[in-house]
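Appendix B. Raw example, untouched.
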Amino acid sequence: MPHTIAAGQTYRTCARYPLGPARIRITAYEPGAATADAADRDSGAGCVVLVADLHASPVHDDGTPRTDGYALTRTLVVLSEPREHQ
């Protein structure tokens, strides 16, 4: 099941021996695009990831662990200014 991808989200690798960064933060994504811009959480180096490799969970629907791609760990939440109660 697809999930919403947005700038500010943090993902960690699902691979035991990753070929790329272990943790990434999405820096830019256009809805519907095949790729997203990201940055290595440890070094800050920029990279591009396939949207198909970004998952909401580190496990498949049947409960088996994923062995590739990235799993969502945190979403940046932007809070609005407090409003007065009416």
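End of appendix B.
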